[in-house]
Amino acid sequence: MPDQPSKTVIISGGTTGMGRAVALERLARGDHVTVIGSNEARGRALLDHAADPNLRFLRADLSSIAEVERVIADISEQHQAIDALALFANRISPEYKETQDGLEFTFALYYLSRYLLGHRLRPLLDAAPDPVIINVAGVGSTAGKIFWDDPQLARRYGQVRAQLQAGRANDLLGVAFAGQAESKVRYILYHPGFTRSGADGHPNPLIRNTIRLLARFFARPVADAVRPIVEWIDQPPESALSAIDRGKPVDMSLKTLDPDDAARLAAYTRDLLRSRSR
Ligand SMILES: NC(=O)c1ccc[n+]([C@@H]2O[C@H](COP(=O)([O-])OP(=O)(O)OC[C@H]3O[C@@H](n4cnc5c(N)ncnc54)[C@H](OP(=O)(O)O)[C@@H]3O)[C@@H](O)[C@H]2O)c1
Predict the structure, then answer these.
(1) DSSP state letters, 157-193
(2) CA pair distance 155, 248, nearest whole angstrom
(3) Is the shortest distance between the CB of 62 and ligand 1 below 6 Å?
(4) What is the pLDDT of residues 251-266, one digit of tens each?
(5) Mean per-residue pLDDT, 165-186
(6) CA–CA separation, 33 vs 84, rounded Å?
(7) Which of 10, 12, 18, 112 for mutating ligand 1's site (highest number of atoms within 8 Å of CB)?
(8) 63 lines ligand 1 (CB under 6 A)
(9) Which of 54, 62, 143, 230 is the most core-located residue (most Cβ within 10 A)?
(10) Is any atom of ligand 1 closer than 6 Å to the C-beta of 97?
(11) Percent of residues, the chain, with pLDDT higher than 70
């Protein structure tokens, strides 16, 4: 795209799957891309594959608040402005796992890292002419909910429950973020649909192989799933918040996008971060 100026793009969870595909597409357009992932070997493999000086890999475990803060500090040192933040990092945890911050792992990785990256990098995003955040999760789905009496799922953990809760939390994150009138960042909640990626991250070999088999017949190719993301980076939508489920706009009056719930989750998250920083 010779007529488009090169962009600065940050991708959390970009060493495999959809994040990796977006990284390679944007590098091909001349962008400066920073990819964050926890696996050094996967990061190295991507660097070797891309062989592009415009690609940086930051190894970090984004389920840790300190690691997310370290990544934010590094990015803030490297860049004066960020055009796009694309959020993909996620991993299923079959067992209840507590992070070093005393948080449930899925909540910490799939939701809280996205909250922190979006909010803390906002000044750099606001410094770009046309900034966008793309949060790739499951908007449009009404399965699952926030367990307000036990958001860390200490009493009722299940891997599906944890994934669905964090998915709904990401829906609310988009609503709350876009409600901040003083930011020019456009927030996109994107549900890619069943895509031929992500199975490798499942720790159970039986489930991994089953997902791979199902994906071969029923899932979308990664290139199809990421096409809109690649385009939004060049041309963000007009509105502060967009929610797209497999190519279709989501009804904004859905209960899962309730502004009161979004404000409640934002307040819970702020309190939680305050208590962790003491
Ligand atoms: N695939 C689907 O059918 C589908 C459908 C709907 C929604 N989604 C959502 O789309 C997003 C991307 O999915 P995908 O299929 O592309 O998954 P994927 O290939 O498994 O990618 C997940 C990424 O997260 C990174 N990651 C995992 N744990 C991490 C940690 N502790 N710290 C930092 N990075 C970590 C992984 O990198 P490392 O291994 O290097 O850590 C990887 O790059 C996910 O949020 C998923 O829930 C997927």
Answers:
(1) --HHHHHHHHHHHHHHHHHHHHT-TT---EEEEEE--
(2) 36
(3) yes
(4) 999 999 999 999 999 9
(5) 95
(6) 10
(7) 18
(8) yes
(9) 62
(10) no
(11) 99
Question: How far are the Cα atoms of 32, 108, 115, 167, 257 from residue 172, in angstroms, in the given order?
Answer: 29, 15, 10, 9, 6
Q: Where are the domains of the chain?
A: 8-276
The minimum-distance atom of ligand 1 relative to the CA of 18 is 16
Six-digit token string for 267: 């307040």
> Under a CB-based contact definition with an 8 Å cutoff, are residues 70 and 79 in contact?
no
Instruction: Specify the residue with its C-alpha closest to ligand 1, atom 9.
Output: 137
C-alpha torsion 270→273→274→278, nearest 10? 180
Helix axes 222-234, 17-28, angle to 10 degrees: 50
Of 25-34, 94-103, 138-147, 216-225, the one with minimum mean pLDDT is 216-225
